[in-house]
Amino acid sequence: MSEAAKTKLSSETLGGTVAQFTMALIGFAGTVIFARWLGPSAFGGVYLLYALVKFADRPMNGWSLAGKKRVSESDSLRPFAFGAQLLFNAGWLLLAGIVVFLAGDALRNYTGLALAPLLLVCLLATESVFETIASLVQGRGRISAATWVDTLRSVFTLPFQIGFVALLSTATVVGSAGMVFGLSLASALTIPFAVGLVAARPAIPSRAFVRNLADYARYSIPSTFLGTTYDRLDVLLLGFLLANGTAAAGWYEVAWKFTLPAVFVANMAGQGLMTTVSARDDRVGGAARDISNTLAYAGILAFPILFGSLALSKPLVVTVYGPDYRNAAVLLIGLAAYRVVRTQSGPLLQAINGFDRPDAAMRLSALAVGINIVLGVPLTLGYGPIGIVLATIVAESVMYLGALRFLRAEIVGIVPVSRPMAAQVGASLVMFVAVSIAHTFVPVASWTDLLSLVSLGGIVYGGVLLVVSPGVRHTLGEAVRGSFPSS
Questions:
Q1: Distance CA 459, CA 251 (A)
Q2: Would you call 326 helix, strand, or coil by DSSP?
Q3: Cβ of 279: how many Cβ atoms within 10 Å?
Q4: Closest of 156, 179, 157 to residue 167, by C-alpha
Q5: What CA–CA distances, in Å, run from 213 to 64, 69, 82, 142, 170?
Q6: pTM for the whole structure
Q7: What is the end-to-end Cα distance of the chain in Å, rounded?
Q8: Least C-beta-crowded within 10 Å: which of 180, 198, 361, 483?
Q9: Residue 483 pLDDT more than 60?
Q10: Is the pLDDT of residue 265 over 90?
Q11: pLDDT tens, 344-377?
């Protein structure tokens, strides 16, 4: 039996979610600092570069998913999967470096960063390599440990970024490049920790094993391309279609960061779900229960964030980031709605991959990208940044329905809507009413006012949910016991 087959999904999800919260707090502090320091245009230019990096590293990421799948099946394959990943990374970095050198002028013009080619290669060689190794750690079932290493990387990143931006801030464009140098250095320093968690020496893989990886990767690589196209298409289209594209990208990224915690539970549970479904390889019983339980609790943070953004979107954005970002308020509501759907569709796609059907996941991703482009271009031109968000919500909803239909045809017993989910929506509604009433008496004029309202919302939501949902109490207790087992 592989290590992945012994994974306790609830405890790994809890541990990983706590790590993601820690990471998000550090990242959130960074976005506030740099958004105010650099302004929307320079800040947005950095995230346009990040979006391009996420396209350039998709083959590395897709190959790592193939390695993750094989590692989850058998511990004996870990050294060969590790070796194959390092060889693939080296080859892809060489090829990407040549392409980046040839496209240097286009990269500079698009991002507004004079050092864009160098920055892109730096991120590929550090951040992207780190992520591929962490994927193999997840294949062992060590979801929480992989996320905590990523959190350590965030701890390094923020001070490095502040130092580089301060050092290079004689020119705004160069100063913004300091964000990239900081992330790259932090990733390089954290790679050895991820290597240690793989717990295997890389070995030269056989041709048969490489072909086995390639059989999976021929679908997982296009799927990651499509998934990233879909995830980052909004920012890329804003950069291409709007005259103020870099500023619009900055507004979008602010709203994106605000809503990021909505998917923490779904992301952690989804990564674990792919591993456990792959290790069990059954189509009834355990797999169906794992999928249903994941769906039931994946939106536990997304629902209150959506209703909270409906109550406080403008005060949140303006108080935290400043008046230059007030246009992000409506994007905050739209992206919070998108995150709700994503908490359901993401785990379903992971389950499909766990059943060794990356081809089906690829087709669903292609459909979503097509819908997003067809709707996104005219809606963005007609309504501005909110148009692309509306298109993304529609595309995500179609992907969710398609994934659910596919799995229901393959697996007996999946429950997409459950009592715990209804309890989460009900508690979110109570929270919305409480915060809205309090906001009429407490207008937001300072951080203290904002934190008071947000704290009230969190207390009301958590309290109501614990009272009305026995399932939440049971699942939380089980996760805690799994994370802190008795000696």
A1: 29
A2: coil
A3: 22
A4: 179
A5: 9, 9, 12, 21, 48
A6: 0.73
A7: 24
A8: 483
A9: no
A10: no
A11: 999 999 888 888 787 888 899 889 989 999 999 9
